[in-house]
Amino acid sequence: MRTFYEDISRWALAEEARWGPWAAPCPVKDADLTWKKTLSRRKAQADARTRERMPVLPVLVRSADRVRKDAAARLQAAEAAQPGQAFAFGGQELVRAPGGRYERRHIWVTDPATGASRDLTFEEHSAFWAWASIEVLRHTGIRIEELTELSHHSLVQYRLPATGELIPLLQIAPSKTDAERLLVISPELADVLSMIVARVRQPGGAVPLVTSYDTHERVWNPPMPLLFQRKLGMENRAINAGAVRSLLDGALAATGLTDPDGELLRFTPHDFRRIFVTDAVMNGMPPHIAQFVCGHANINTTMGYKAVYPEEVITAHRAFIARRRASRPGEEYRTPTGAEWEEFLGHFERRKVAYGTCGRAYGTGCIHEHACLRCSLLRPDPAERDRIVEVRDNLIARIAEARREGWLGEVEGLEVHLAGAREKLSQLDQITSHRTVTDLGIPTFADVAGRTIATS
Asked: Up-side HSE of residue 214: CA atoms within 13 Å toward CB?
């Protein structure tokens, strides 16, 4: 469409008589081509998702670790029991199922209360790999395909030339950007990786070789000693991305966390990557370093992952408040006395008048000598409409009487009061016509402050 409009503009320069009348500005703007609004909306949604999940990540970590330990202890208790023997764990009584065909590989139990059968071996495997996936993803920020391709060969070490200290590193194989990178293994991540290696290692000490399917390249990878593998039947198989997502869903279901809509909160593997970048930048990691840690080809991609709270704005605003407070008299920031607090509360309680509520500021007196109907600060109460109507009718009668008796000096004052009453009635009409009463359940000021004062 833009090309068509540009062609007409160029033709109009060459043949003005023929194409000039048809030349017009193109309705397709540059912003429409760059998808700026769509990208900004997508960025805002991703940042909101990260801010929603970042505070609850410790809850997920603790829950996954507790479920893993409980599943391991439950399986150990079942292994100690004989087939057909009942045992108790966590206040629940279970019965180990009689030995069957798969007794050596899986241990089944039965719940006498419900009669349901449970595969404790499978539960322990699922709990462990869910915990391992969460720990590796949150400590490294790697992509899901990089997680499934981690192997025993990925664990390397580097010796610092100056001190000779050994630094454990995690080699990330080329995936999305076809570029490998090295990550420093933290002590927490080292514990997780050591537990994974100890779990998949064979009695001889070697990690089994398994093949995995690359869904992006649509090819089978050569056999590798992958870290994320588990035994299914008689063979070891790689844990693919779909299995990792299912494990995460199961771990989240155990936490009971919900989103603002009341639905079960979900974490995708990429959520951990965004949280990792956000946490790294918030804790002082330079963005260009975070770019190489995450394996981004462009630093703008890294900054797009950063979903921090506007800390610099909050810090600057707090500093401004501190400077402004320092320039004001110190007695304004002292703790108020009991008498001052009672006077402050009493001001709000004494604003209630016969016709409504007075909106004068704290510490100021009445400028109309309590002639409320003449005051612009009076907010009339719809419940007092009949009282104001009665005052208006009385003023009309008094004005008529004053004119009849010749009290012309009093007529002017009464007419000012009458104009104020009519203005308040008009204000009441506007309030009642545009207002819908909704009980918000908000407590009164006295309930909030916890103090009361007598108005008399």
From this structure: 14
Q: Which amino acid is at 200?
A: V
How many other C-beta atoms can be found within 10 angstroms of the C-beta atom of residue 236?
17
C-alpha distances in angstroms, 35 versus 32, 39, 181, 187, 303?
5, 6, 32, 43, 18
Instruction: Render pLDDT for 263-293 as a digit per residue (tens, 0 to 9).
Output: 888 888 988 988 888 888 777 777 778 787 8
**How far is residue 368's CA from residue 411's CA, in Å, rounded to a whole number?**
19
Can you read off the two tokens belonging to residue 333? 């920031």
pLDDT band at 177 (very low <50, low <70, confident <90, very high): low
Residues 6 or more apart whose CB falls under 8 angstroms from that of 415 comprise 399
307-336 residue pLDDT tens = 655 565 667 777 877 777 777 666 666 677
Residue 227 CB neighbours (<10 A):
24
Residue bearing tokens 């949150």: 138
Q: Among all chains, which residue has been given the structure tokens 């449970």?
A: 118
Containing H/E element for 101? none
What's the chain's length in residues? 456
378 membership: H or E segment, kind and range? strand 378-380
State whether CATH 3.40.109 applies to domain 57-267: no
Q: Residue 97: which of 123, 116, 72, 73 has the closest Cα?
A: 116
Q: In 3-state terms, what secondary structure has residue 377?
A: coil
Domain edges within the chain: 57-267, 356-449
Q: Which residue, among 225, 216, 133, 224, has the nearest Cα to 175 in the 3D structure?
A: 216
**pLDDT > 50? residue 456:** no
Q: Which residues of 175-207 are buried (b: 16+ CB within 10 A; e: fewer)?
A: beeeeebebebeeebeebbeebeeebeeeeeeb
Q: Which amino acid is at 142?
A: I
Beta bridge partners of 352: 357
Rg of the chain over all Cα atoms, to the nearest angstrom: 37
238 Cβ contact partners less than 8 Å away, ≥ 6 residues apart: 148, 210, 211, 212, 213, 226, 228, 229
Which amino acid belongs to residue 453?
I
CB 276 within 8 A of CB 138: yes
